[in-house]
Amino acid sequence: MAAKKDMRRLDLAIPYIEPPTSKNDADVSGAMSSTMPMAAMFTRNRMIGWVSFVFSLQNWLGETEDQKSSSSTPAYMSVFMSFMALVVTYFPIFLPPQNQRAGATPAPSAS
């Protein structure tokens, strides 16, 4: 069987040009990296804490110069917030609440 001839024409090829980004585009990754640590602290969910830490770390490492100049807070602050969310979620392991610590002793009666 004979090899088929390539029918593509190079003179008709159009190179890819990336569309310009709009200044009005919302920074979804910045909003996520600032709200996820708060959700982890409120719910004391460790999984949300770890996801927020990894997400904010990736957001900080992938930050462009335009994002640095246009953002109101630096990206390392969201990394710090997500780390503090991890500290809050793991805090009861190292310092349990008072009612669990003294749970074995009965409370004194009022009579």
From TrEMBL:
Q: Give the molecular function GO annotations.
A: protein folding chaperone
Gene Ontology cellular-component annotations = endoplasmic reticulum membrane
Localization, per the record, is:
Membrane
Q: Name one GO biological process term.
A: protein insertion into ER membrane
| Listed transmembrane segments | 45-62, 74-95
Q: What's in the keyword line of the UniProt record?
A: Membrane, Transmembrane, Transmembrane helix
Q: What is this protein called?
A: Protein Asterix
Q: What is the lineage of its organism?
A: Eukaryota, Fungi, Dikarya, Ascomycota, Pezizomycotina
